Inverse folding.
């Protein structure tokens, strides 16, 4: 008789600097609301982490509609960071999230360094926030956002200010809309970031040839989805080789094989973004798929595949 | 959930009826607040047509008819790539469906007479409303007003009549009487019935207008309803990504309370049915 070996359950836990996740799968900011909507579809405690929609000091209305359109294997959005504001988040949304056994990553943005600082200070005092992700890369708002993320010194200043305002782990979310992301990653590291999120959306545009108008009211928007995956994988790989910080990889991850591609390129964790819209169960399917891959390849720990591309 | 196509047939050039089945598809999904309750008229589903990443996003379609707890029907117009792919599916094919989603048409207490106004594909969600009223609300009467470009595009009129709902039609080219816009027919109807009862505004108390169709039609119906003091509920459209309230991508401008300021509301979640009085067109 052939003795069947029961495969050992691999460990999925990963560390983003001081932040330990039970598995490498997070939901990307702006694609998962504040968690409530998706809690109807699966148990949020299954996730490695949840990143909230971007939070600002004051509530924001966002951009006028139409705000999104579909593009080949992707979509353009210009939501304009509509959000309830940090105070209402802490009061009304956070208690719900705190009820799950997962890491809550608060994504923040501001128009000035002081605003970033003030939002951080409030979240630092709130119970149930495990890390702060600093968005300096939103292509859809006039001030703040990408204006910081495409200027090396502004990148340093914002991350430094956030770093000084909190003892929570700080994650810098960088813009891909620059010639080379590496110097930005480097500046964020020097300013005290614990980890990096790569990538935010790529600036794009689509035109309706009948009306001759841009398809979204903001004219330009952020491109996400499978269309941007090769760009994102390339950036993760470049930054992984050059900078010592752990990376959350994202950009068009739809399933476990996409997620594994990012991990092999150097991502410690991965985020599902646009995938949530197409398949609310995408994050849990990705977790299961990563585990299956590890078992099939006899790898006992998820961290052993990070950066293992044979390049 | 994975649903199976039972029937997918062209009704008139470019317009299709598709029946799909899956356990509980006509009911609210487990885990949702209204779990197990039937889908209501005005709600919609998000359909993933095709297995690849292009087209990427799900397509929203309104509940046209709830056939059973385990099967629903959609009426759709082939307008682009997604609906073209859908039109090629054959019985037995599977597709991934999310729903029912959204709020549905409200029927406030005191409503006695529903005016159902549809233009073209706008009939899709209104049929579900007519089904509901004729099957389950003996306390409500209804009249239907259906407009289209030409005879072939006046959808569902026979179905409404079969339910014994008084039905009026209009075509732009006159291929089916009356020639012109359905809103004119509606206007005449309202005025005539106000006169008949000869007691002014009060005759339209207990009336509500339910509309869906091209924007120009919706705007003129809304203005008319306002003029006569009749409530108007309208089903709105907007590009959607998630369909469940998470992405903030589907908003429209609506009035916020009485103070005249505007806010963005999500079509998928706060709608798709809105009080027409609140919409900033
Ligand atoms: C709540 C709701 C209910 C709807 N119910 C019906 C229905 O019962 N029957 C029906 O025929 N149509 C309905 N529509 C419109 C239908 O969703 C679109 O016709 C369809 O998405 C077009 O997809 P496509 O790939 O064929 O067209 P394309 O033009 O190739 O689509 C490109 C993108 O734009 C979006 N889009 C295009 N037109 C619309 C539109 N009118 N509304 C929203 N998104 C659009 C698509 O979803 C897709 O993301 C409804 C829309 C909404 C918002
Ligand atoms: C609708 C939408 C809203 C987003 N909102 C935010 C946001 O508020 N803050 C942020 O840092 N990134 C935001 N993003 C970017 C995503 O978090 C992610 O970086 C990007 O979409 C790439 O991943 P994806 O291709 O898997 O979606 C948003 C993306 C989308 C599609
Ligand atoms: S479609 Fe995402 S919020 Fe409405």
């Amino acid at each position: 008789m052939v003795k069947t070996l029961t495969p050992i359950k691999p460990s999925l836990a990963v560390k983003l600097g001081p932040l330990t996740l039970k598995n490498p799968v997070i939901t990307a900011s702006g694609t998962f609301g504040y968690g409530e909507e998706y809690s109807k579809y699966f148990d949020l405690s299954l996730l490695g982490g949840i990143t909230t929609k971007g939070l600002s000091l004051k509530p924001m209305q966002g951009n006028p509609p139409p705000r999104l359109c579909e593009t080949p294997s992707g979509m353009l959005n210009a939501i304009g960071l509509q959000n309830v504001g940090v105070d209402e988040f802490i009061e009304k949304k956070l208690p719900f999230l705190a009820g799950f056994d997962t890491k809550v990553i608060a994504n923040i943005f501001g128009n000035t360094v002081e605003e970033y600082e003030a939002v951080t200070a409030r979240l630092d005092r709130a119970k149930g926030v495990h890390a702060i992700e600093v968005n300096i890369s939103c292509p859809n708002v006039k001030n703040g956002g990408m204006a910081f993320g495409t200027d090396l010194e502004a990148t340093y200043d914002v991350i430094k200010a956030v770093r000084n305002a909190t003892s929570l782990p700080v994650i810098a979310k960088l813009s891909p809309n620059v010639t080379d992301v590496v110097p930005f990653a480097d500046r964020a590291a020097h300013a005290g970031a614990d980890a990096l999120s790569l990538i935010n959306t790529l600036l794009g545009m689509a035109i309706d040839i009948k009306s001759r108008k841009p398809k979204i009211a903001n004219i330009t928007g952020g491109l996400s989805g499978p269309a941007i995956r090769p760009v994102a994988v390339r950036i993760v790989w470049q930054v992984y080789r050059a900078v010592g910080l752990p990376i959350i990889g994202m950009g068009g991850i739809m399933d476990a094989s996409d997620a594994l591609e990012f991990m092999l390129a150097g991502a410690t964790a991965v985020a599902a973004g646009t995938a949530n819209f197409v398949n609310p169960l995408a994050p849990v399917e990705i977790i299961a798929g990563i585990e299956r891959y590890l078992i099939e390849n006899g790898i006992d720990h998820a961290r052993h595949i990070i950066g293992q591309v044979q390049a | 959930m994975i649903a199976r196509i039972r029937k997918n047939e062209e009704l008139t050039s470019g317009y299709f009826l598709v029946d799909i089945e899956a356990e509980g598809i006509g009911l609210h999904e487990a885990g949702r607040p209204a779990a197990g309750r039937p889908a209501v008229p005005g709600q919609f589903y998000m359909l993933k047509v095709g297995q690849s990443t292009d087209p990427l996003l799900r397509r929203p379609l309104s509940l046209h008819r709830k056939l059973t707890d385990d099967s629903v029907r959609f009426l759709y117009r082939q307008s682009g790539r997604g609906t073209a792919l859908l039109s090629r599916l054959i019985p037995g094919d599977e597709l991934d469906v999310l729903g029912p989603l959204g709020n549905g048409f409200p029927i406030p207490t005191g409503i006695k007479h529903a005016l159902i106004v549809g233009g073209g594909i706008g009939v899709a969600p209104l049929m579900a409303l007519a089904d509901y009223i004729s099957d389950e609300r003996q306390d409500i009467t209804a009249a239907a007003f259906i407009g289209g470009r030409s005879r072939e595009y006046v959808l569902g009129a026979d179905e409404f009549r079969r339910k014994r709902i008084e039905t009026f039609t209009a075509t732009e080219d006159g291929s089916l009487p009356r020639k012109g816009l359905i809103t004119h027919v509606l206007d005449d109807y309202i005025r005539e019935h106000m006169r008949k009862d000869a007691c002014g505004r009060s005759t339209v108390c207990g009336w509500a207008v339910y509309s869906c169709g091209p924007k120009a039609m919706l705007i003129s119906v809304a203005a008319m309803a306002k003029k006569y003091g009749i409530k108007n509920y309208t089903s709105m459209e907007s590009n959607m990504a998630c369909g469940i309230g998470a992405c903030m991508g589907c908003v429209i401008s609506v009035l916020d309370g009485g103070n005249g300021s505007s806010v963005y509301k999500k079509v998928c979640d706060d709608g798709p049915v809105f009080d027409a009085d609140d919409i900033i067109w």
Summary: The mean pLDDT of chain A is 95. Chain A has one domain: 14-55+82-203+227-305. Residues 282-296 of chain A form the longest helix (15 residues).
